[in-house]
Design a protein that fits this description.
single chain, Rossmann fold, binds flavin-adenine dinucleotide
């Protein structure tokens, strides 16, 4: 009899396992249907030796000292210089919108005061902001809305910003100073030896109290594995066999493109360093292209290798059997999730955790915080 059967070896499942085994002395079996640990945060070398994030780029950032210190037990860090550009009207733009973007728009140097005055004049006002279109128009004005937001949102969600809750586009930063950083959190770092090594160190720290079975769907082992409690970090609707129908998601298709080192002279004019394909780790494409963003991880991994790999992301319609990437922020999805949550609350011996288990778009630091709290609660009954 093991204490905890944990479904999913991502940040949620492994944080719970580490706490339950190491801190609380319990035994855990972690199963994952994939061939590797790390869930969507897994990184690896591709066939050309380039370190990539195969499930989309993962920029670790947090304001939480607790999470940073907790994970620092399992990794050293390197600075995460996350720099994102948008490609529109045949040029790269500083993004998110900041004073530099404004200067590019004007085609001349400017100032915070001028940008603030411009925004005041161009932003539209609404009595009560109802949707993402209004949220963006009220903060950025129509010019930037059309340039950066409308097309991108349509591709990402297959819905017009008018049909989306204000919160979907509302959280994108706007800065009237020259600050082109993608995110604003206190810690912006990457595991020095990659995410996968961080996860391996978490597993190793548990010693013999932890067993890990990859390539294993929990359904194939759950009835033959006696356990006191189940922790489920997979999609909650699959646990309940889609009783209330499948939860809506957007999925992604990734296309990889390797460029050999012999053909990467760089381009000073476009800001592309020698050995790289594009000027920054991520370029957003709000225009007609069918992909939303293009990622060159070498910019942030600082891997010393001659060639480089680009990964383009194509948002696609989700259907059961595909990878569920983004929970869809529509009221209809919340209604379905609420029904699953009510079923989950009736189960004393099962705890749902993580991005898929709670059907919420959660960043890495948020799932770690939640797994720390929930494991403590399991032990201390708090
Ligand atoms: C494209 C993309 C980019 C992102 N970028 C960032 C970022 O830059 N910064 C950030 O902080 N966060 C980012 N995130 C969010 C981050 O990926 C999540 O916070 C994190 O992966 C959640 O971890 P998790 O363990 O809850 O879920 P997951 O990583 O999804 O792990 C769940 C695991 O459960 C397994 N599983 C499911 N069903 C079964 C089953 N039946 N049997 C066995 N195993 C099963 C799956 O194989 C999977 O490995 C991004 C997410 C996406 C989709």
């Amino acid at each position: 009899m093991i204490d905890y059967l944990i479904v999913g070896a991502g940040f949620s499942g492994l944080t719970a396992a580490e706490q339950l085994c190491r801190k609380y002395g319990k035994t855990c079996l972690v199963v994952d249907k994939r061939a590797h640990i790390g869930g969507n945060c897994y990184d690896c070398k591709d066939e050309h030796g380039v370190l990539i994030h195969p499930y989309g780029p993962h920029y670790f950032r947090t304001n939480s000292d607790e999470v940073f210190q907790y994970l620092s037990q399992f990794t050293r860090w390197i600075p995460g210089n996350y720099h994102v550009l948008a490609y529109a009207k045949d040029q790269f733009w500083s993004f998110p919108v900041n004073l530099e973007t404004f200067e590019q728009y004007l085609g001349r140097p400017s100032s915070t005061e001028e940008m603030e005055a411009w925004l005041k004049e161009h932003c539209e006002s609404f009595d009560d902001i109802q949707n993402s279109e209004q949220a963006v128009l009220s903060r950025f004005g129509r010019e930037f809305y059309t340039l950066f937001f409308e097309g991108y949102t349509l591709k990402q969600w297959q819905k017009h910003p008018r049909e989306l809750a204000a919160s979907v586009c509302g959280r994108i930063p706007l800065r009237t100073v020259r600050d082109g950083r993608y995110v604003s959190e206190t810690y912006q770092v990457l595991p020095a030896d990659g995410y996968t090594r961080l996860f391996e160190n978490m597993v190793d720290a548990c010693g013999t109290r932890l067993q890990l079975h990859l390539n294993t769907d929990y359904r194939d082992v759950v009835s033959s594995t006696p356990h006191r409690h189940l922790i489920f970090t997979g999609p909650i609707d699959t646990y309940f066999d889609y009783q209330h129908g499948p939860l809506p998601y957007r999925t992604l298709r990734f296309e990889r493109e390797f460029h050999s080192g012999d053909h990467l002279p760089g381009n000073l004019h476009l800001g592309i360093p020698e050995g790289f394909i594009q000027p920054s780790v991520q370029v957003n494409y709000p225009g007609e292209e069918p992909w939303t963003r293009c990622v060159e991880a070498k910019h942030i991994t600082h891997q010393r290798i001659a060639g480089s790999t680009l990964i383009r992301e194509f948002p696609e319609t989700y259907e059961v059997g595909k990878e569920p990437y983004y929970p869809i922020p529509f009221p209809e999805s919340r209604e379905i999730y609420t029904q699953y949550k009510q079923l989950a609350e009736k189960l004393d011996q099962v705890t749902f955790m993580g991005r898929l288990g709670t059907y919420a778009y959660l960043n890495m630091d948020q799932v770690v915080t939640s797994a720390l709290r929930k494991s403590k609660r399991l032990i201390e009954g708090m």
